[in-house]
Every structure is written in structure tokens, then in C-alpha cells.
Specification:
Number of strands: 16
Largest sheet: 8 strands, mixed
Number of helices: 14
Strand order of the largest sheet: 4-3-2-1-5-6-7-8
Shape: globular
């Protein structure tokens, strides 16, 4: 048994993100199921509204308690004044400052998700591992922003093609250990067939962001990704539905554009605002249409989303835009990749022709490759690997 602290800075400020919560709490739940002493440390930036902060903190601990983690977590409210967060300046919840310091100093390992902890908080831990869930985005951001990446000792990424010759993600002179998103299978039942009229769905943010790499513009926009598949409902003659945060008063015309092409739109905070409703939403789906941020396609990151992992574990086939993940996982049945619209159309039609076979294959893929009972020990082993690349002589 090891004592491991997992650190993040995104759960408390986003209580309506049922998918986000589901993806991350599987890690401490899975580690505890393996017999490890797993804790979650959350950072929350003060909003300037004490009432809102209190509401978020209460919601955070209530949800962690629902997942059996209420006595295995702590939160630090970071002052709005800015500056470098320190333990003395932050307001602790769940545990007092001495207990948080003792937890950090006694921990065998820190998994720091997306650089949530920075020095000096980061340096309270003796063995620090960066866990990257957004390959390319994090790496390119680190070229211009000091994320304290090199203060870690080992580096894990869900970019399963990092260091491959055809992957263009800057590795920052570090050795990255690659992993796939995990699913805690006891929380994912293979749900019954919802019927052929059930839509292919996905849950997504609707963003326009861009990053630059050596004079090249790379989109991190899910909007751009899904608009490439705008004609899928018409081409396949079946329903597609997006739980996307497009405001009803949005003035871009995107809502109307999607609806004119046959897409259904639902409010993600209504259908997937908690882990339970999120899981139910996936179960009511025929499968997932996973359109990825263009950066994953263009840099060949080998990324697979934790959302897609949940669909697969539910026995829901996934039609997924090709990021290179086929070099790591079996594809063609259950998980079907596409590059262009014609391939997406063919994949959807094939799944509808033999949904049962694809459903069984989806669940089997999750059991064989994504099961937390197998993946988490491998991640722990990889965490012991020192990740700095020695400079050339």
C-alpha cells in the first residue's frame, strides 16, 4: 500500500460538469479499491463572492462524500489577491493546515493533474508526477507560460503517441510515460440496447480557442471539429444529438446551423450535470460520435477521451476521429475511427447494421484495455521512472 495524493483545480469550480467529475474521481476510487491510501487535494481560486465560494465548497464535499471520498479530501481556497498560492495564505477546508502539511510530507507520491499545484505547494511533496490529460494543449502552453513542469520527477500523458516519429507534440526535453484513460468498471454497467432510434450523442464544450506552434495555427475548438461533420444526420438518415453548452441566445448562428442540418441540441447541465445523470445520458445513447479538437488530429497525439472510455464501458460503440489511437488500441469493431466525413458515414452505418457485435466489442475493449484494475498499477509503475532527458554532450 502507498499513500498517494491526487491534486486538481477544476472540480470545485465546475460542479455542473458531470462528465469531468466522473472522469477524475475514478482515479482515487480505483486506487482505493486496489488497497492504496488515496487522497484528493483541490485548489479553488476565490471568486470574490463569499457566498458563491461557500456554495462551491459545500457542493464539492457533498459530491466527494457521495463517492465515498468525503473523509479523504481537502480543499484550499486561494485568495483572489493573486500572487503565488501558499499553504499559509490559502484557507483550508476538510483538513487543517497542519494536517494538509503532514499529508503532503508523508505521501509516497503526488499525481498532479494538469499542473494544478505549483511551487511552493508542489514542493511539499517528495515525489511529484505530472499527469497530463490534454496532450498538445498543455505542451504548447508550456512553451510560453511557466507551468513548473520541470519541478516534477516523472511525466504521464494520455497522449499515447508522444515520442513516436509521426507525433508532432513538443516533448519539452522530457520522457513521457503514456497511458490510456481508465474506467472503474464496477461503476459502469453494460447497459441494454436503447433501440435503433436512439441518437448517437456526445457531451462537449463549444469553444473557439487557438494555439500557435512555430508559426502554425492549431485549433483547440470542439466547434470546428463538429462542424466538419455537419451533414452526418442527412447522410445517414438517423438522429444525432449534442449536449453542448451553446447558449439559447447565442448570436453566432451555430445553434440554428446545427438544427437546420438535423442535429438535436440539449443542455449539458440538464442531461449530464452530475455523474449519475451523465452516466444515464450515455446509457440512453446508441453510441458516441467523438469529434476531437483539431490539435489532436493534426499533431497525432494518440488521445482518447475519458468520455469515450465511458461510452465503451457502457457497451456503446464509439465513432472517433483518428488521433493515432489505433496504434495503441484495437479499432474497427466497437471503436471505429474516421478521418473524413465519408468514413464517419460508413462507420455509423456499419454500427447500425450490427449494433450488437459492436456493443459487445466496445465493452470487451474497456475490460481488456481500460480497466482501472489493470491500468492504475501500470501508471504507478511508470510514476517511478525519472522523466528528464539528459542533454546531449
Amino acid at each position: 500500500m502507498i499513500r498517494i495524493v491526487l491534486a486538481g483545480g477544476f472540480l470545485a469550480k465546475y460542479p455542473e460538469g458531470g462528465g469531468l467529475w466522473t472522469g477524475f474521481v475514478q482515479y482515487p476510487i480505483g486506487l482505493r479499491a486496489l488497497g492504496h491510501d488515496a487522497w484528493w487535494l483541490e485548489l479553488l481560486d476565490a471568486s470574490g463572492d463569499a457566498g458563491l465560494d461557500r456554495q462551491r465548497i459545500e457542493a464539492f464535499f457533498a459530491r466527494m462524500t457521495e463517492h465515498g471520498l468525503g473523509d479523504r479530501c481537502a480543499l484550499l481556497l486561494v485568495p483572489k489577491a493573486g500572487g503565488i498560492p501558499t499553504l499559509d495564505a490559502a484557507e483550508p477546508y476538510g483538513l487543517g493546515r497542519p494536517a494538509i502539511r503532514e499529508l503532503a510530507e508523508s505521501a509516497d507520491l503526488l499525481w498532479n493533474f494538469a499542473c494544478a499545484l505549483r511551487p511552493p505547494l508542489l514542493n511539499m511533496f517528495r515525489h511529484r508526477v505530472l499527469v497530463d490529460g490534454d496532450p498538445g494543449h498543455l505542451h504548447m502552453s508550456a512553451l510560453t507560460v511557466d507551468l513548473a513542469i520541470h519541478e516534477h520527477h516523472a511525466f504521464l500523458t494520455v497522449g499515447t503517441k508522444l515520442h513516436d516519429p509521426d507525433c508532432a507534440v513538443p516533448t519539452l526535453d522530457l520522457q513521457w510515460q503514456r497511458f490510456v484513460p481508465v474506467v472503474h468498471l464496477p461503476r459502469w454497467a453494460a447497459a441494454p440496447d436503447p433501440g435503433p432510434d436512439a441518437p448517437f450523442t456526445s457531451v462537449t464544450h463549444w469553444l473557439w480557442e487557438e494555439l500557435w506552434l512555430e508559426g502554425r495555427v492549431l485549433s483547440v475548438s470542439k466547434r470546428a471539429a463538429y462542424l466538419r461533420c455537419l451533414d452526418l444526420p442527412r447522410r445517414t438518415g438517423r438522429p444525432f444529438e449534442l449536449a453542448a453548452n451553446i447558449h439559447p441566445d447565442d448570436r453566432t448562428g451555430d445553434r440554428e446551423l446545427l438544427q437546420q442540418h438535423g442535429w438535436r441540441l440539449v443542455d449539458p447541465y440538464h442531461v449530464a450535470g452530475s455523474p449519475a445523470t451523465y452516466r444515464d445520458y450515455l446509457h440512453r445513447s446508441r453510441g458516441e460520435l467523438g469529434c476531437v479538437k483539431p490539435i489532436h488530429r493534426e499533431l497525432r497525439t494518440g488521445w482518447l477521451s475519458d468520455r469515450s472510455a465511458g461510452y465503451l464501458a457502457s457497451g456503446r460503440p464509439v465513432v472517433f476521429e483518428d488521433t493515432g489511437i489505433g496504434d495503441r488500441l484495437p479499432t474497427g469493431v466497437g471503436l471505429v475511427l474516421f478521418r473524413e466525413l465519408d468514413e464517419a458515414v460508413a462507420a455509423v452505418n456499419e454500427i447500425d447494421r450490427d449494433w450488437g457485435r459492436h456493443s459487445r466489442a466496445a465493452r470487451e475493449l474497456a475490460e481488456e484495455f481500460l480497466d482501472a484494475r489493470r491500468c492504475l498499477p501500470a501508471m504507478l509503475d511508470a510514476s517511478a521512472t525519472r522523466g528528464r532527458v539528459s542533454p546531449a554532450p
